[in-house]
Amino acid sequence: MNETLIVRFHASLLDILNGVLEMRAKDKTFELLAPSETLALEIIGKHKSLAMSELARLAGTAANTMTGIVDRLVHRHIARRTTSPADRRVVLVELTENGLKLFAQHQQFTKRIIAGLLKTLAPEEQQSFVEMFERITAPLKS
Predict the structure, then answer these.
(1) Nearest to 76 by CA among 25, 30, 23, 22
(2) What is the rounded CA–CA span in Å between residue 79 and residue 93?
């Protein structure tokens, strides 16, 4: 593999991450949420309700770290904890009405960012880019 391509790809990924964090910092919707809390919001929103252990796994963080993140979301009435009807030992996390609104705002924010990135490409390039990106990220989903 060409070392220069690896370095360029890495630099581009960092540019995307830094750009998103910069745009996020300017968006009033998320000024009270840390990036880790926003990630939890995104995961919970996509899954509707999930076990704390699964939330931690999907976020790539330790269970005790996720407990602190969820504590802050619960304190701000963004998420709530419930027990599983199948096994009362399992703690489930879901979004509150406020959390659902915030999740919808986050989805719109994300769409604006992605649209802004994709608009730099011609329509046929956009299709190819997304397909290539899906192939690149497929092994990460295993």
Answers:
(1) 30
(2) 7
Output the pTM of the full model: 0.81
User: Rounded to an integer, what distance in angstroms lies between the CA atom of residue 30 and that of residue 37?
Assistant: 10
pLDDT tens per residue, range 45-96: 999 999 999 999 999 999 999 999 999 999 999 999 999 888 888 899 999 9
The pair of structure tokens assigned to 41 is 């919001």
Amino acid, res. 20:
V
| Run of H or E residues at 98 | helix 97-118
User: If you ran DSSP here, which 8-state letter would residue 104 be given?
Assistant: H
- Nearest Cα neighbor of 69 from 61, 103, 137, 17 is 61
Which tokens sit at 19? 């750009």
